[in-house]
Design goal:
heterodimer; A: 441 residues; three-stranded antiparallel β-sheet; B: 169 residues; 5 helices; binds iron/sulfur cluster
Chain lengths: 441, 169
């Protein structure tokens, strides 16, 4: 590795010897302290993606912890200003990539508020959204618990978590055509109705999943090694959570049953029966327990949504009944992937000139959204995910800003880590479960 | 990325390697092919699919690809999965240069191939091949785990056909 490369990539390179270093080392060598500054990341297997941590250590104790973010800043919010409102969903889905449906729903709810069509979203679409969101919650928590185990050095929880996640992803793929980043929820409803057999597939998942969650619980709940690494680690009490704006499992593990699904219901959550699990401990173990219990609650909600989808809401619309807004085509799976359904193509190409014009206008230009601003929020697996949507009356957003729970929760990292052991930093960060795509956007 | 020059010096795998006899080359390539220790440069959504490929169902360890390299110095293959931002690019290049020869790179996903959905973003590097040489590109956003398996097999074929003198095929 020659010096000119280094200079090109990193600026001037200093070698740790000679000149002032010799002096520095001489002055320090007499002292008896073990102060260390450690840089962790941005590419580190235990920092949950591209998070960078700067830790000041005194021996094994962390005296100061700081985060450096921005390594995954992709400019999603800015890019959206150059796309139509519908195209925006393909960007927001890539923010918090472990919970794509939540991003889409928050964004679409914001757009719908501006359009004033919140009450006209078909109930079937709402029930599908609820079902998909809860499925996503399970897959997201599975990854959270799995990576947590992995970061503490245990591979088995992750193998379990990945297996369960694959099951959920299979269902997702069956319904939306994609495993991740599906852009399934659209302003006005969802992009495509459940395909035939989807209800059965979800039903199968509902049968298998409780046993799988039970397996994880058996492995971890009373595991002495796991307890030693999680109990009373990274403690943050309710006051601390409130001061830092922490939401989600972290807040509920500190004892406050704050869940937007209950406190500000959306998508018809008020009509579902479920509990909000809480713990009193405020430590890593409490957050784990809350996540596990939430998955079990999610299963209940999915079951209820499924009953409605296969019962009273069978065969309903999944897109708002407004031809100026609702995407005209039902999608269908063709030989080259998802696309417009052949029926729709036949209709616009040889059936109705008006339909062709509508399709053309909607696809190329998009719909107009009345000027104004709206805020919509959903309870994502990590906490309150809000979308602040601003329109100047055009076919493209004027500004869309997201309140991402990973970002807000991450600021509790110093509060939970400082004064603890360096090994506990890993548990603390993993229990916050930040997704850097959501933090940096 | 004007300040990041492409590598100009190409080290060889030893001075005597051009005259290595054929069976020797075969054995060398055979060894390299099936013991690819991966340095996972997981950056964004694609990293999740990378992890899914390494885990329970798809399990690329059966191809001799081991995702537990302790760091770039102990890795043969770098899989860049996810969005390379301008802030991250120097780190990508730096860690690539820390890897010992012979080394290979798989670019996994639209973002690291070309910028992907962020092709017009102000802060995304439009393709990791602008800063490091790439052997195999896997398209998709995110690509399916099967696509990564195919990418790995393509790379293995490439290695099998490689002359040991070449640093990269
Ligand atoms: S290619 Fe797509 S899935 Fe992969 S990192 Fe980029 S946006 Fe995410």
């Amino acid at each position: 590795m020659s010096a000119p490369y280094e200079e090109a990539t990193e600026g001037t390179v200093y070698t740790v010897s000679g000149n002032d270093w010799t002096e520095l080392i001489e002055t320090l060598s007499g002292q008896q302290d073990e102060k260390l500054v450690i840089n962790m990341g941005p590419q580190h297997p235990s920092t949950h993606g591209v998070l960078r941590l700067i830790l000041n250590l005194d021996g094994e104790t962390v005296t100061e912890a700081r985060t450096v973010i921005g390594y995954l800043h992709t400019g999603i919010e800015k890019n959206m200003e150059f796309r139509t409102w519908t195209q925006g969903t393909t960007f927001v889905t890539r923010m918090d990539y472990l919970a794509p449906i939540f991003n889409e729903t928050a964004y679409c709810m914001g757009v719908e508020k501006l359009l004033g069509i919140t009450d006209r979203i078909p109930e079937r679409a709402q029930a599908i959204r609820v079902m998909m969101m809860e499925l996503t919650r399970i897959s997201s928590h599975m990854v959270a618990i799995g990576t947590f185990g992995m970061e503490l050095g245990a591979t088995t929880p992750f193998l379990f978590g990945a297996r369960e996640r694959e099951m959920v992803l299979d269902v997702m793929e069956y319904i939306t055509g994609l495993r991740m980043n599906m852009a399934y929820v659209r302003p006005g409803g969802v992009s495509v109705d459940l395909p035939a057999g989807a209800v059965d597939k979800v039903g199968e998942l509902l049968k298998v999943m409780p046993g799988r969650i039970e397996d994880l619980r058996k492995m971890l709940d009373a595991n002495p090694v796991y307890l030693a690494r999680t109990k009373d680690v990274a403690y943050l009490d309710l006051t601390g959570c409130m001061a830092l704006g922490v939401t989600g499992p972290m807040l509920r593990a500190a004892g406050l049953p704050w869940d937007l699904r209950k406190s500000q219901p959306y998508c018809g959550y008020e009509t579902y029966e479920f509990d909000v699990p809480t713990e009193k401990t405020g430590d890593v173990y409490g957050r784990y327990l809350v996540r596990m219990a939430e998955m079990e609650e999610s299963l209940k909600i999915i079951e209820q949504a499924l009953d409605r989808l296969s019962g009273p809401l069978k065969g309903g619309r999944v897109m708002v009944d407004d031809k100026k807004i609702g995407w005209p085509a039902q999608l269908a799976l063709g030989p080259d992937g998802m696309g417009n359904s052949p029926d729709h193509i036949a209709h616009i190409m040889s059936g109705s000139m008006e339909a062709l014009i509508h399709h053309f206008k909607l696809v190329t230009e998009g719909f107009r959204v009345p000027a104004g601003q709206a805020y919509a929020s959903v309870e994502s697996p990590r906490g309150e995910l809000g979308a602040h949507v601003v329109s100047d009356g055009g076919t493209r957003p004027y500004r869309v800003h997201f309140r991402d729970p990973s970002f807000t929760n991450l600021q509790s990292m110093p509060a939970t880590c400082e004064g603890g052991m360096v090994a506990d930093v890993i548990s603390a960060v993993a229990s916050i479960d930040p997704v850097m795509g959501g933090v940096d956007r | 990325m004007a300040d990041l020059p492409m590598p100009t010096v190409r080290p060889t795998a030893g001075p005597a390697s051009p005259s290595a006899p054929r069976p020797m080359r075969f054995i060398l390539n055979w060894g390299r092919r099936y013991s690819l220790w991966v340095f996972n440069f997981g950056l964004a959504c694609c990293a999740i699919e990378f992890v899914a490929t390494s885990m329970s169902r798809h399990d690329f360890i059966r191809f001799g690809v081991v995702p537990f390299a302790d760091g770039p110095r102990r890795a043969d293959l770098m899989i860049v999965s996810g969005t390379v931002t301008d802030k991250m690019a120097p780190a990508v290049k730096r860690l690539y240069e820390r890897m010992p020869d012979p080394k290979y790179v798989i670019s996994f996903g639209a973002c690291s191939n070309s910028g992907g959905p962020y092709w017009d973003s102000y802060c995304v590097t439009k393709g990791v091949d602008q800063i490091i040489p790439v052997d195999v590109y896997v398209p998709g956003c995110p690509p399916r785990p099967e696509a990564l398996l195919h990418g790995i097999m393509t790379l293995q074929e490439k290695i099998a056909a490689q002359h040991p003198e070449d640093r990269r095929a």
